[in-house]
Amino acid sequence: ASRDNVEVVDLAGWVASQSDDNVLRPDGVHFSDDGAVRAAEWLAPQILDAYSRITGRSDSGLPG
């Protein structure tokens, strides 16, 4: 369902697009330490872009 001020970030789609899922998630579920870093490097900009589209702001909205 469509909701105002909501965006979906497709982390599952990103994981599926990675050729080395067994390295990202050695047990098939949980990210390894290195996998978590790679996922976060992809996910953080996605969240910030969604925030910017929703709010029209280019800052993170966080203090400091």
What does it look like?
The N and C termini lie far apart (35 Å). It contains three helices and no strands. The relative contact order is 0.14. By secondary structure, it is an all-alpha fold. The model has no long low-confidence stretch (mean pLDDT 90). The protein is elongated.
Quick summary:
Helix content is 53%, strand content 0%.
Give the overall shape, derived from the CA principal axes: elongated
* Low-pLDDT windows of residues: none
Measured distance between first and last alpha carbons: 35 Å
Tally of DSSP helical segments: 3
The helix/strand order is: HHH
Strand content: under 5%
Question: What is the topological layout?
Answer:
Layout: H1 11-17, H2 21-24, H3 33-55
Name some characteristics of this structure.
64 residues, mainly alpha, 0% strand
